[in-house]
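INTERNAL AUDIT FORM
Audit reference: QA-55
Scope: verify that the stored structure record matches its stored sequence.
Auditor: D.O.
Record contents follow.
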Amino acid sequence: MADELKALHETISRDWEEMKSQLKRHDADGADVKQTVETVNAAISKHEEKMADERKAREALELKVARMEQLERAATETKDGPTAEMKAWAKFIRKGEEKMVPEELKSLATDSDTDGGFTVPAPQEAAMVTLLRQVSSVESVATVTTIGSGNALKIPKEGSDIFAAGKVGERDTRSQTANGNFALETIPVHEWYANPFVTQTMLDDTGFDVEAWIASRVANRRAYLNGTYHLSGTGEGEPEGILTNSEISYVPGTDASAIVADGLIDTAFALPAFYARNAQWAWRRATTGKIRKLRTSTTSEFLWAPGINGGTSATVLGYSYNEWEDMPAVAGNAYPVLFGDFKACYHIVNRKGMMLTRDPFSSKPFVEFYFTWRSGGQVVLAEAMRKMKIATS
């Protein structure tokens, strides 16, 4: 991968030098200005595409390395080697509870002896959560809190009455000012599950890293669920989605079937300045392709801008963007674009502790690994977010 990135970077550099050479030749030949501009635009567009490919390749490599590092840490390789807890966990995964000695069973926390269920060791669960946040959508940008017990998180929220203040002279009397009011925002957690199957042959093969494989499967399953519900959940027995929250204001579009530059500009400037400082865009990848073609109506400048030397993310109107496939497609009456401060707007709550039940009997020749966990999320500050709506067709 490193050699491929190096080769791609060299190709981009050569193209850049060639573009400058073309400009010099155009100037020397007294070429038409319009033709020169077209040549420059074509070269820049080609350069931007290759820089974007280089950035994506680098990000994919960095993500792969990060995942490997997290899974290695999940094995809790201390200076003295794997802990007794992780040794017992690995044996439970491969052989089952019936093959474990009492000392090994004691090292694992059990919550349902009759079902053969054990609480996933903290390092292994941490690895799963880390993978989840790397591949998930909203969870990677929202506020995330982990609770140790209970089925909900209660946080104070400022009410409609605000604290008052006023100017006063040096010797003037001071009357009481309004105190404002607070309420408790309750974010419930809901039960989720993942149920990957593994053949007994894979478990018996010591060369197969079953713990890492299961961690990646569970993390991907959680990321898939989060991507759906944190955006489109109803809030009834499941997380509340950003798109379904009725308190988030939307900016109406001017076209019945397309995104237009003025619509994006209106959406960006509809957000209060306080939240715009940490704001980001969110849409699906296909929408990026449409937005990259947009220009301002006055200066004909592109709204999309590439990152600098591949070291920064591309931006739209100066703000970075996220590509989430769970976002709606561009269509009449849809909300394909979000813009705001996701950390201020959305709060995710995960309850500490994941449960695993191992079942080698129900689906022979496979062994089922049934994971359950609790997680929730909802909008806590609607004013920190805006939705862009395509005009009704």
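Auditor finding: record pair retrieved intact. Residues 89 and 134 are 25 Å apart (CA to CA).
Action required: none
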